[in-house]
Amino acid sequence: MLKVKNSPLKPLALAATIGLTLAGCSSERAEPMPEPMRVATLTVVADVLDNQREFNASVVPADLTRLSFRVDGKISDIAVLSGQSVKRGQLIARLIDSTARDALTDAKAQYALLDRQLRRAQTLAGQDLLSQAELDELAANHRLAKANLKAAELSLRYTELFAPFDGVVSEVNKKDFETVQPGEAVITLYRNDRIDIQVPLPDALLSQVDPGQPDNQGYQPIVRVGDTGRSYPAHYLEHTLELDPSSRTFHMWLTMAPTAEPIRPGQPVTVVVDMKAAELDLPEGFTVPMTALQAGASPDAFYAWRLEDNRATRIDVTVGELTQSGAQILDGVDAGDRLIVTGLSRLRNGMTVQAMPQNPTTQPQDQQ
Known about the structure:
This is Multidrug efflux RND transporter periplasmic adaptor subunit VmeU. By secondary structure, the chain is of the alpha+beta class.
């Protein structure tokens, strides 16, 4: 068998294989690295203190009352419409009263019969022709008949529903010929001799409101109505001690006299408060746009992203008041911190990012 020694083809093949392998590695290493994500930022600056603060509020019905019948039955007539003004004592709804009238007629007849029997028995007892036991029994039956007569009269009276005060019909909950139970809402009515304003406030402000202090009662916040530019003074009415789970704020109510222009429940208004005149203090903090915050696991948990050496760092923050200008951060940031305001959902702690140039003429609350 013929053997070929020291063939020049083997070194050439080996060199070609090594060259191709090195070329493949070089091409993989030559792939460009992805560019860091570009983000917009803002620099945290101290708030400019202003004595006047504005709060978004809304008009709510004053003394909203749900009216109902005291007896069951079928509605004969609804005498009012939604939005209609009514006077105190005005008839607003009626039940079919045929059964109540029949019961009243029977009660009157029974009472009249027992009343005659008692008078006759009293005469006979005076002549010793009737025992005291028989007289006592007739007297008891007479009292029972009188009580039944009064109950029948009330039942007939309760088939009519009257307005308890001057007001406006907010809603008609039932229709003619519907059957209702005692206590079931038929008409919803609110007062029209005053206008109530509901204002959401943070706990830091509401805790300073003391209804017993003359200063709080004497100061009058200003209620500005829509785009009309008209403003009206208001008075403190009451406030709640329960946190609203949806807005995470507490509610305070103001009240004011009726105005020449129509102001209806549900209408948005702005409440302007002079913090110094009202002797209220706001906690110091930094106002940032809502785009600089992300919600945490719980309703009152928030965090932000701070830019440090081109890296995103997640920080927990304490958020106070929410205003038209943004959110007030009470703790977690310092003046001069640079916060990321775009792409927060794609950030990871320690992630390298590229900050876009800031516009020095743009205020932090205006950056989006």
